[in-house]
Amino acid sequence: MTIFISRTTRMLRIYPILHTKELITQKTQIFGRQTSSAKSEKSRSVEWKSIVTGFMPVGLCLVAVMQWRAFRKRQSETIASKWEINCYCMLPLRTVSRAWGWIADIQLPKFIRPVIYGLYSHTFGVNISEAQPEDYTHYSSLSEFFARPLKDGVRVIDQDCCMVSPCDGTVLHFGTVDTEHVEQVKGITYSLKDFLGEQSWKQNDSNTTNYRHSLLHKPDVGNTLYQCVIYLAPGDYHRFHSPTEWKPTHRRHFAGELLSVSPSIAKWLPGLFCLNERAVYLGHWEHGFFSYTAVGATNVGTVRVYFDKTLQTNIHKKSAPMKEICLGSAVDLKRGDPIGEFRMGSTIVLIFEAPIHFNFSIFPGDKVKMGQRLGLVHHQRFQDRISHEKSDGGYVTMRSAS
């Protein structure tokens, strides 16, 4: 009996200890599971947070772009404000254009040339049948393809007018220059003085301080200034030619921005042509003052002028705002003569003096070809006769000059 009581007492003493150990073990296991669960939840929280924070900027940018497009669509008639122009000019478009120029100069393997050039031609509507040669494999780089020559006879030079189109492209704007601000498109202007630069020589005997008037060689016979802007799209023939018989005597190179010169930007951004890099050639023709300007643009790797070997555009080193050289009397151009080439689409701006009865033979938005009639001098006003002929449920528009 004594032995039984003794053993029972020892068991009662041990049981609480064992019970306590079991409780501790159970609590530890429960706590461990809780800790593991908490860590897992925390890990999932961190993972979701990283996903959200990682993609949020992309989403915000996408929303911002969509909102901006919607806003621009609603405000299609507005023009860029000063802060919008400043923001646009802050974009690294010159660096992008230099990079694009470097890419365009890379020699491509022959087997891949038809694929690359064929895709480009399909996207931008290149008529490769006009090129000499037509074989894609002949062009070792994109730059060579952009500056492809045309077959003989593909462009006919009009000899029955005083001026022809200097390039293939779309007519953005044309007309008289009545003030010191020129229209780049309807309602959007740029400064004539900022575009051509300070007048460093006198063209006539008058004492006028008016910049526009100071350009005229023959103001006494009633001459005035005219202008024409032609945009070369990426799919157009990229070489540009002389529109008439004239003699360039000076070249001014303005190292500016390389903003897009597409029609949509030209309608939105005032002073676009004054902001961009450009090569201005000043001279004279039979009716007086004549200027021919090749305007640089985004992704135009190089502007090359055949008779001006010293011209270097889109260079990395920051140069003076304007450099001027005298060409002398060595350059004498005839209509249709090759002048240069763009290594991508851009813009040609003509500003010239002519009699008051000079008339353009084009319309805004017209697609023109190099050598096509641009204007002529005559006493009879150019008239637009539009007749509509119903054909298969539609209308055909016909225009002619009388």
TrEMBL record:
Listed EC numbers: 4.1.1.65
Subunit structure: Heterodimer of a large membrane-associated beta subunit and a small pyruvoyl-containing alpha subunit.
GO cellular component: mitochondrial inner membrane
Site (Cleavage (non-hydrolytic)): 345-346
Bound cofactor: record note: Binds 1 pyruvoyl group covalently per subunit.
InterPro entries xref list: PS_Dcarbxylase (IPR003817), PSD-B (IPR033177), PSD_type1_euk (IPR033661)
GO biological process: phosphatidylethanolamine biosynthetic process; protein autoprocessing
Segments on the Mitochondrial intermembrane side according to the record's topology features: 68-402
Catalytic residues identified in the record: 168 (charge relay system), 241 (charge relay system), 346 (schiff-base intermediate with substrate), 346 (charge relay system)
A GO molecular function held by the record: phosphatidylserine decarboxylase activity
Cofactor(s) required for function per UniProt: pyruvate
The protein, known as: Phosphatidylserine decarboxylase proenzyme, mitochondrial
Superkingdom field: Eukaryota
NCBIfam families membership: PS_decarb
Post-translational modification remark: Is synthesized initially as an inactive proenzyme. Formation of the active enzyme involves a self-maturation process in which the active site pyruvoyl group is generated from an internal serine residue via an autocatalytic post-translational modification. Two non-identical subunits are generated from the proenzyme in this reaction, and the pyruvate is formed at the N-terminus of the alpha chain, which is derived from the carboxyl end of the proenzyme.
Keywords: Decarboxylase, Lipid biosynthesis, Lipid metabolism, Lyase, Membrane, Mitochondrion, Mitochondrion inner membrane, Phospholipid biosynthesis, Phospholipid metabolism, Pyruvate, Transmembrane, Transmembrane helix, Zymogen
Mitochondrial matrix side: 1-48
Family affiliation: Belongs to the phosphatidylserine decarboxylase family. PSD-B subfamily. Eukaryotic type I sub-subfamily.
Catalytic activity: a 1,2-diacyl-sn-glycero-3-phospho-L-serine + H(+) = a 1,2-diacyl-sn-glycero-3-phosphoethanolamine + CO2
